[in-house]
């Protein structure tokens, strides 16, 4: 993965040392490859001879579970199912019960929590107890897109690995390799919206968000006195977008607004306020059950209110 060189150097130095830290916080923007690093690092950690397999019994992954019993039954039947919007205390309790036994194949086990910043409060408090008194040979890798959302007491017990964003040139080369059907204009829009995150850029292309970005820019450029452009935006977002699409649309809106913030604006306050509101909505997205139509209208209204702020001070 691009930009992981320093993280690998730190990890391998730690593995070669006498006392490796038991808890690691993998911090960086969503889409820069933290989860891929965590899995690869965990495989190095627990590898015993030829036992470094895809499904290693001493690597435990904790992420979003099915939303409820009904969705759990769908998963068991091999049907599409809906995920919960946070990581719950029951998942942490189940992990802790495993820690009372020895690792299966060697003397080390790895616990990956992705994303740790979506732990419910009770789940975070339960995890803290394991971080305070970790069983011998147990190592935690916490993937975090927004580390500030973690409990300070959790952050203080972790060694931090930071994952940088990627340059525009590297992103363009990557998109040409992974999404060869995307034209130059689409790649440029994806790179601008992704703000250094290869995963976000690929998502932009795969979800065909170019038209959504243009609709957002149209509202910022022209306002929307008759609500027609907001209706267009809602249609492009879709009547029933899944959680990933809603998140991508919110992050795209933030990027579109941030690109309008210029030093010579007549009055940047509306743009700043709009960006702050979009940050708030993005923070609520993992746990709120947004109505897609209402969310699209709210995003459109924020952009329309910011439209006058896009005027330049020099005319």
TrEMBL record:
InterPro entries documented for this protein: DNA_Rep/Repair_Clamp_Loader, P-loop_NTPase
Pfam families per record: DNA_pol3_delta2
PANTHER family found in the cross-reference section: DNA POLYMERASE III SUBUNIT DELTA, REPLICATION FACTOR C / DNA POLYMERASE III GAMMA-TAU SUBUNIT
Name the record gives this protein: DNA polymerase III subunit delta
């Amino acid at each position: 993965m691009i930009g992981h060189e320093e993280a690998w150097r730190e990890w391998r130095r730690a593995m070669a040392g006498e006392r490796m830290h038991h808890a690691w916080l993998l911090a960086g923007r969503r889409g820069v490859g933290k989860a891929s690093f965590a899995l690869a690092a965990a495989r190095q950690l627990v590898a015993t001879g030829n036992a470094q397999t895809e499904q290693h019994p001493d690597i435990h992954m904790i992420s979003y579970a099915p939303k409820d019993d009904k969705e759990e039954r769908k998963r068991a039947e091999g049907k599409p199912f809906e995920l919960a919007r946070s990581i719950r205390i029951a998942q942490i309790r189940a992990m802790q019960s495993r820690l009372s036994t020895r690792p299966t194949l060697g003397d080390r086990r790895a616990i990956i929590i992705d994303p740790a910043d979506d732990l419910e409060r009770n789940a975070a408090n339960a995890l803290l107890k394991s971080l305070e008194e970790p069983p011998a040979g147990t190592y935690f890798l916490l993937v975090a897109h927004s580390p500030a959302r973690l409990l300070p007491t959790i952050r203080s017990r972790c060694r931090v690995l930071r994952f940088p964003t990627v340059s525009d040139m590297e992103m363009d080369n990557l998109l040409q390799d992974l999404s060869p059907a995307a034209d130059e204009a689409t790649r440029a829009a994806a790179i601008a919206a992704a703000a250094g995150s290869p995963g976000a850029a690929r998502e932009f292309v795969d979800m065909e968000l170019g038209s959504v970005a243009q609709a957002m820019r149209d509202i910022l450029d022209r306002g929307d006195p008759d609500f027609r452009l907001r209706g267009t935006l809602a249609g492009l977002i879709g009547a029933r977008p899944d959680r990933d699409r809603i998140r991508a649309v919110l992050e795209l809106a933030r990027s579109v607004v941030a690109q309008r913030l210029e030093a010579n604006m007549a009055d940047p306050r509306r743009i700043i306020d709009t960006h702050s509101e979009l940050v708030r909505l993005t923070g609520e997205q993992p746990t709120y059950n947004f109505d897609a139509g209402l969310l699209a209208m709210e995003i459109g209204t924020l952009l329309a209110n910011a439209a006058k702020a896009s005027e330049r001070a020099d005319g």
